[in-house]
Amino acid sequence: MTQNPPNLRPDLAPKPLFDAPARPGQPRIGMVSLGCPKALVDSERILTRLRAEGYAISPDYQGADAVIVNTCGFLDSAKAESLEAIGEALAANGRVIVTGCLGAEPEYITGAHPSVLAVTGPHQYEQVLDAVHVAVPPAPDPFVDLLPATGVSLTPRHYSYLKISEGCNHKCRFCIIPDMRGRLVSRPAHAVLREAEKLVAAGVRELLVISQDTSAYGVDIKHAEKNGHRAHITDLARDLGSLGAWVRLHYVYPYPHVRDLIPLMAEGLVLPYLDIPFQHAHPETLRRMARPAAAAKTLDEIARWRADCPEITLRSTFIVGFPGETEEEFQTLLDWLNEAQLDRVGCFQYENVAGARSNALPDHVPDEVKQDRWDRFMAKAQAISEAKLAAKVGTRQQVIVDAVDSEGATCRTMADAPEIDGNLFIDEGHAALSPGDIVTVEVDEASEYDLWGRLV
Fold first, then answer.
1. Tens-place pLDDT, residues 266-314
2. 279: which DSSP letter?
3. Beta pairing partners, 247
4. Which domains does the chain have, with CATH numbers?
5. Tag placement on the chain: N or C end, fewer CB within 10 Å?
6. Three-state secondary structure call for residue 90
7. Which Gene Ontology cellular-component terms appear in the entry (predicted)?
8. What's the pTM value of the predicted model, to 2 decimals?
9. Is 80 exposed, middle or buried (0-12, 13-18, 19+ CB in 10 A)?
10. Separation of alpha carbons 426 and 448, rounded Å
11. Which of the residues in the chain have pLDDT under 50?
């Protein structure tokens, strides 16, 4: 069992899990999925289509006839990681197809790795399939190659990401997601519900709702209603909450109508958990970021959410060292964090990203200052987290079991999303537990980010 480090990145997808071995002669495709959970959903869709066409999924480079690398291009560090992964796949396998966000810059990829077989952009599923067909012709066996209704999942069986829209209408100066993935495109509500119903029927106990901007869901289609379901985040959350699984909302932009979600959390229909990317607190910094400068009002909203749902968990991400950030502005952020008392916090040091408008802003912050501010910010966030978790000692918590081994069970409370938040560990009496079980524990120990407890 491992404990989460204090500098968790909130944008990393979990490591993919693979299923049955290939039959003799079956073409095999490997997959490396980088970036956020939204990219992981894209990888699942690609592999589901490939499995339906007769391909097996290889868990390693050597066993694959070709490898797909689903890249991230959000930060320059992520681009470097993607190029490194492509190079690793080329060295180990030699036949590589590149897709994903970095695929929107094909010359950038082929300039570093000219031997890749093909480059496609984000959510270009048909082009990826075409490239695979050329590199490794399919050889389907209709009597053997059967898929479950839920398709291929790259996460454990008991939880699944549920993507409700693609793209984003915001124009934050540090972000190039709209350039790579386009403007907001929402899925019809009845299609989302149908997918969720299939997942729950297949044993999924937790649905993690994701998009680029979850609270804007349905705006582009004017909150259209079809088959009795309206494309609005409040309606969708209520509908999902009726399925009997945990429902966790990610990437919720703090629009005023977010307050309408809080009663659903108080009622137990969706988890009392909001993942909201505040990014900063000083109005001038937010203005330079091209984000609404309403930090003071945000504190009022947080107080209102907590009044309506005292058990709510608030997670957020922030950027320190944004161009022009002064020590006074950073201190405002620290003071705001101290007042907001957020439960889960991630932080990035600002990086230039090719194509981002923030690159041209004046007064870039030196790297050593960014590092110092990051250290101070995380120290404050850690102290808040430690105090909040210490207050949970002696309480009873409902938890979901993620893994069980000889040492104990690794679980999560309702306040913890997989991979990005903390864990609750059960060290004794865990032998009968299985992944996906939801049980009640009494918390008897806490650290800065994790809890320990016993079954009750």
1. 999 999 999 999 999 999 999 999 986 666 689 999 999 999 999 999 9
2. B
3. 207
4. 28-135 (3.40.50.12160), 159-390 (3.80.30.20), 396-455 (2.40.50.140)
5. C
6. helix
7. ribosome
8. 0.79
9. exposed
10. 17
11. 1-19, 147-149
